[in-house]
Amino acid sequence: MERFKESGLSNVRLEPWTIANGWTRGPATGQIVSPTHHTLTLETAGWSAATKGKLRGPVIGIAAEKAEELQQYKGKLKGAIVLVGRPREMVSPGILC
């Protein structure tokens, strides 16, 4: 609050607030099982809906730098698990201290 006052604001105070629905990052796991086994690193996005159990589908990797490059995939991704971009090492954000 002091920073606000130092910036010249008046009538600075804390007010109570609540969030109607909370969100907790849950586990996210995935693997490609055919033609070879490959474990996927996944992270859930904040406030995203959960799946209704396991998902299965063809895996399609796409590379597109611009929106117009996505046109080549039009009508080809329904029901697919889409991997976007080149594979890379990822680190879980975990709990920030």
Question: Outline of this structure?
Answer:
This protein has 97 residues and is mainly β.
Could you characterize the architecture of this molecule?
- The chain has one helix and four strands, in the order H-E-E-E-E.
- The protein starts with a helix and ends in a 13-residue tail after the last strand.
- A two-stranded antiparallel ribbon has the order 1-2. A two-stranded parallel ribbon has the order 3-4.
- It has 97 residues and is mainly beta.
- The protein has one helix at 2-6, and strands at residues 29-32, 38-41, 59-62, 81-84.
Descriptive labels:
single chain, 97 residues, mainly beta, two-stranded antiparallel ribbon, two-stranded parallel ribbon, 1 helix, 16% strand, elongated
Layout of secondary structure:
Blueprint: H1 2-6, E1 29-32, E2 38-41, E3 59-62, E4 81-84
Parallel strand pairs: 3-4
Antiparallel strand pairs: 1-2
Q: Helix and strand succession?
A: HEEEE
Structural class assignment:
mainly beta
Measured distance between first and last alpha carbons: 22 Å
What are the segments in which pLDDT stays under 50 over at least 5 consecutive residues?
none
Number of helices: 1
Query: What form results from the Cα inertia axes?
Result: elongated
Radius of gyration: 21 Å
Helix content: under 10%
